Amino acid sequence: MIERCGEAIVLRVWPFQEADLLVSLFTREQGRVKGVARHAMRSRRRFGGALEPMTYVRATYAERPKQELVRLDAFEILSSPLSRPIDYARTAALQFVAEVVEEALPEQAPEDAVFRLVLAVLDQIQVGKVWMPVTYFSLWMSKLMGWMPELGHCVVCGLDLRGGTVWYSATSDGVTCEDDRRPGSVAVSAASVGEAVRIFRGTVGELAKEDWPKGRAADLRRFAVETLERHLERRLVSARALGRA
Ligand SMILES: [Zn+2]
């Protein structure tokens, strides 16, 4: 048995046998792991309020030989999403980050850059301020996974699209100029492409100082979410919930 202790983010929790819970955890050291929290429904001492999705914890757990699920022993809360006000949009945004990480990362593969991204956006997803961190996370997650197309040139004719509108389709790679757009293509405005450039250059903390209502760069956010969905080969339930916010 190997005992481990390290930083982790709680992604999802399911009821398991009796009073046990099955927990999907994104650990800094080992990437995504799944474990059983024995008697977690009863043992408030070991897990307390730490099983809320997107809680940042120091997790103590044990890997058992020939067992796929680790044994979760205790969580110490480093930062809880419940320590600040919560509403529908913030809940949906937190669920969105959890769902994307859960779906995008394989188990047992460390992803330190993704871990740092998640921590940074978590801190900025606050009541009345969810749209920028969600857009930032979606674009950066695509980039870190290697799914982000180059936005500067038409993938068909090579035309320089910098400073202009780009077109993308839900079924094919890359972005195009208007002439080469595929059936059903959707546009991302020049202004929104400019926001993407700023997002890839700036930190989420700096950008959070700006006013980002839902309508700002909404076409860019849709593009980023659809890029994630295309590579995950599924619709993100939380993205739909977020859209209703
Ligand atoms: Zn073209």
TrEMBL record:
Keywords: DNA damage, DNA recombination, DNA repair. Belongs to the RecO family. HAMAP family: RecO. The gene is recO. It comes from the Bacteria. Residues 7-80 form the DNA replication/recombination mediator RecO N-terminal domain. One of its GO terms (biological process) is double-strand break repair. It comes from Tunturiibacter lichenicola. It holds the Pfam family RecO_N. Coiled coil: none annotated. GO terms for cellular component: bacterial nucleoid. This is DNA repair protein RecO. Involved in DNA repair and RecF pathway recombination.
